[in-house]
Amino acid sequence: MMHKRFPAYLQDIQDDVEGHARAFGLDFFPILYEVLDYKTMNEVAAYGGFPTRYPHWRFGMDYEQLSKSYEWGMSKIYEMVINTNPAYAYLLEGNSTVDQKTVMAHVCGHVDFFKHNYFFSKTNRKMIDGMANHASLVRRHMERQGQDVVEDFIDTCLSLENLIDPMSAFIVRSRGKGEGEDGEDGEVPRLRAKQYMDNFINPPEYLEAQRKKKEEEKKKQRKRFPEEPQRDILLWLIQHAPLETWQRNVLEIVRDEAYYFVPQAMTKIMNEGWATYWHSKILTEKALDASEIIDYADACSGILATSPGRLNPYKLGVELFRNIEDRWNRGRFGKEWEECDSMDAKRDWDRRLGLGQRKLFEVRKLYNDVTFLDEFFTLEFCLEQKFYSFGFSERSGNWEIMSREFKKVKETMLRQLTNRGQPFIYVEDGNFENRSELLLRHQHEGVDLDLAQARDTLRNLYKVWTRPVSLLTRVEGKGKLLRCDDSSITEKSADYPA
Amino acid sequence: MSQKIDLDHGRFRQIIRGKIKQNLRKYISQGEMIARKGKDTVSVPLPQVDIPHFKHGGKQQGGVGQGKGDVGDPLGQGQDGDEPGAGQAGDRPGEHLVEIEVSLQELAEILGEELELPRIEPKGAAKIVSFKDKYTGIRTTGPESLRHFRRTYRQAMRRQISMGTYDPKNPVIIPIRDDKRYRSWRSEPLPQSNAVIIYMMDVSGSMGDEQKEIVRIESFWIDTWLRSQYHGIESRYIIHDAMAKEVDRDTFFRTRESGGTMISSAYKLCAKMIEDEYAPDQWNIYPFHFSDGDNWSVDDTVTCVELLKTKVLPACNLFAYGQVESPYGSGQFIKDLREHFDEDERVVTSEIKGKDAIMDSIKDFLGKGR
Predict the structure, then answer these.
(1) Residue of B nearest to A78 (CA)
(2) Deepest of A33, A245, A489, B231, by most Cβ within 10 A of its Cβ?
(3) Which of B49, B54, B65 sits opposite A390 (nearest CB)?
(4) Distance between CA atoms of residues A300 and A288, nearest Å
(5) What value of ipTM does the predicted structure carry?
(6) Where does A117-243 have alpha helices with state H?
(7) Which sign does the torsion angle of CA B226, B223, B318, B338 carry?
(8) Could you give the dihedral angle defined by the CA atoms of residues A455, A456, A461 and A463, in that order, rounded to the nearest 10 degrees?
């Protein structure tokens, strides 16, 4: 990366903006800015904000797409900041002063969010080093094993990178559950009987049979592997797949990086909303000159523009934060508010509580996108912001607006965000059919899997597991078992337990 | 400035090339897949570039949007990438295709490698049309007018420093004869080879849309290949039924006329064109003729053969005849040509049975390296 001296006028802006941000109560890691030309900007963006990543063609692909869309004037990266301590942020060379001011205020919001949001609390804040270490490890593997081999294996791993458990970092694992918790070992309950009747009421043959049956069941239970379905499939593979050392290491690297990016994906709307809320507040209330207001508004309208069929996280996030602030300022919450059904009373409802700011900071600390929308996306907000749900109409062959009904809209939105929009896939059985095959189960939540992709992904899983891999899913309401062995895929119908 | 990403990017392009090569037959037989973009590039949809994941299928999923519109209104095409930092949430379910831009030059190379096409040795390449002088280096002798001032003084300074006669407080530098440096040049020959492709197509009633599509696809690839071999190539288009006329490219692929077929009319026009405009010793001439082979009469076929022998063949590098199979079957003409010119390696004939045969036919035409 180029190390240019950070220009003095930008340093002044930074000091000014950060001063205002602190006065508003934002609290962030130290921020280090770098000014980049657009080529380097695209490079860094392709690397996910990091200066160094392991060698892989996918970054080249992203770079090409970013460069193309920049050259055609379709998009331009304004702002980029990574979650590290100190936080690194990038400014585009040649942007106007107003833009740079806006970006800096925006970045303050992001870094405050990184520092305080609960879902970021477990991330590695030295990830720049982490990524660089990964890069040099992968390079070393490539030198030893050959570039093509390692690259192929990375492709395989990346295909599985979403098979992780986003909440994994927060689960308190209760290991070492006591053996024989379920009643005394092998003891068959007897009916009460007088001694001389015992042999008739509790016949020894029956008792024996019962005891055997129970033992059998227990054996089965114990043989289940894993004992409970596992969501962190990558971890499962690292622990149990027959991998070579370098392969295991590559898989660990891919998993590690996937987990690093999880909080970003989980809080996209909140994070952007929070940053937008603050750049807007800092700039319009403090940092802008009168002469800059038009340019600022112009840039802002671009960021907040909505287009059909697309949810703009900046827009949704900032509007929802403002809505929350307003509601808590005026006391529009709680049992009384919920139960009031007089529209007149609701319209003029103002308890002058002034709790808005406090609530905002609380929300930014404790919520993620799903809980944020679940709790604060209200009927009033939905109507005011003109939300609709859309879907594909078989009849017209178009994507069209399906409904403006609050329930439908909210349901669609939450479904889209749950598990970052990814399907739930579990390791069900690591010794399927008692042939050390792998069985995965897709927990169907109303949307079928993309089967073409699922087949390709299964092939990749097979490469890692090296034994046949099956996936149980539901397609058009019917259970289906996809099985991949030796790169051929068979499909048959199967029971899909609801 | 070179960047770290260049390595990854290069790797990506390499993979793209491999994929295109793998799927070349498919691209060739389904001409509509490759869309021209701008002057020198095409965009190619590549299916399996992106990494597969377990993910939800598109059409059941739907999503949430914001703004005006009534229930049932279509959304129209969502614009991609007009939003800073386009997010995960709310992305329209997209197709699993990546559009990749490839330059025509690159496409020609891929075609050449896959079909193992030999490079064409242009006629009269030895004939050098012009020289161009290029300053390429520095030498110690030369005319004073070409003395390189800075290099001369630098040399002098270097000498003075090493001899210890340089005084930083009084930095006087006096070059002596040995210090003098002169620009040197090289005359580079600019071989100029001119080439013209004359496309001829039968547009009689029996040539349907499918046949024309085949001709269109095939001439696109021929064009691409020949363009990669010659700088500055001209294309001319002739259509004929019972009469021949010259048309522009657009008309060439669109016209549908009915009527009989007199192939000689096209050859006459072609011969005239060559005679008037393309002197055979200056030009590499490539007539390509596509027809369904149903010529009007045996007499006309005789005229054709005569025309080819006396006028067209002596002038051209390669005469290619592609016979497209029409719903009315394949005609006699190809057999006649083969009978007369079997020994002549300037003539290539190829039967194109359908879209899948285009690739082989291209190989037939261009495989000779003429």
Answers:
(1) B84
(2) A33
(3) B65
(4) 13
(5) 0.81
(6) 127-145, 147-159, 198-201, 204-223, 233-240
(7) positive
(8) 120
CA neighbor of B254 nearest in space, from B272, B275, B237: B237
Please give the model's pTM, rounded to 2 decimal places. Answer: 0.75
Residue A35 CB-half CA count within 13 A: 16
Residue A412 covered by a domain: yes
Q: Could you tell me which of A38, A32, A31, A14 has the C-alpha nearest to residue A92?
A: A38
Residues B234 and B329 both lie in one domain: yes
**Cα gap A448→B61, rounded to integer Å:** 9
Residue A276 located in a structural domain: yes
3-state secondary structure of A126: coil
Is A368:A420 a contact under the CB 8 Å cutoff?
no
> At B186, phi and psi to the nearest 5?
-130, 140
CATH number at B223 reads 3.40.50.410
Are B180 and B204 in the same domain? no
Helices (H) and strands (E) in chain A, counts: 20, 10
Give pLDDT tens digits for A187-199.
677 777 788 888 8
A327 with A406, same domain: the answer is yes
> Cα–Cα distance between B301 and B283 in angstroms, integer?
27
Nearest to A417 among B3, B89, B96 (CB): B89
Q: Give a three-class secondary structure readout of chain B.
A: CCCCHHHHHHHHHHHHHHHHHHCHHHHHHCHHHCEEECCCEEEEEECCCCCCCCCECCCCCCEEEECCCCCCCECCCCCCCCCCCCCCCCCCCCCCCEEEEEEHHHHHHHHHHHHCCCCCCCCCCCCEEEEEEEEEEEECCCCHHHECHHHHHHHHHHHHHHHCCCCCCCCCCCCCHHHCCEEEEEEEEEECCEEEEEEEEECCCCCCHHHHHHHHHHHHHHHHHHHHHCCCEEEEEEEECCCEEEECHHHHHHCCCCCCCCHHHHHHHHHHHHHHHCCCCCEEEEEEEEECCCCCCHHHHHHHHHHHHHHHHHHCCCEEEEEECECCECCCHHHHHHHHHCCCCCEEEEEECCHHHHHHHHHHHHCCCC
Q: Count of CB atoms within 10 A of residue A133's CB?
A: 16
Query: B292: domain range?
Result: 194-366
Burial classification of residue B278, based on how many CB atoms lie within 10 Å of its CB (0-12 exposed, 13-18 middle, 19 or more buried):
buried
Looking at the complex, report in whole angstroms how far the Cα of residue A335 sits from the nearest Cα belonging to chain B.
Answer: 29
The CB density around residue A74, as the number of other CB atoms within 10 Å, is: 13
User: What ranges make up the beta strands (E) of A5-128?
Assistant: 31-36, 79-82, 87-92
Model pLDDT, residue A14: 94
Task: Identify which of B199, B212, B202, B325 has the alpha carbon closest to the alpha carbon of residue B258.
Answer: B202
Residue A17 or residue B73, greater confidence: A17
Q: Is residue A149 part of a domain?
A: no
**Residue-wise pLDDT tens digits, B307-366:** 888 888 888 888 889 888 877 766 788 888 888 887 787 888 888 888 888 888 888 888
- Of the residues A161, A319, A399, the best mutation for testing chain B's interface (the one with the most B CB atoms within 10 Å of its CB) is A399
Write out the H or E segment, with its range, that includes residue A443.
strand A437-443
Contact B49, B95 (CB under 8 A): no
Q: Which of residues 34-93 of B touch A (CB under 8 A)?
A: 48-49, 51-76, 78-92
Residues B232 and B157 in one domain: no
Which residues pair with residue A33 across a beta bridge?
A89
Q: How confident is the model at residue B83 (pLDDT cuts 50, 70, 90)?
A: very low
* Domain interval for residue A385: 305-418
Domain total of chain B: 3
pLDDT at residue B93 in the model: 36
| Interchain CB contact of B94 with A (< 8 Å) | no
Chain-centre distance of CA B154, in angstroms?
Answer: 48
pLDDT band at A12 (very low <50, low <70, confident <90, very high): very high
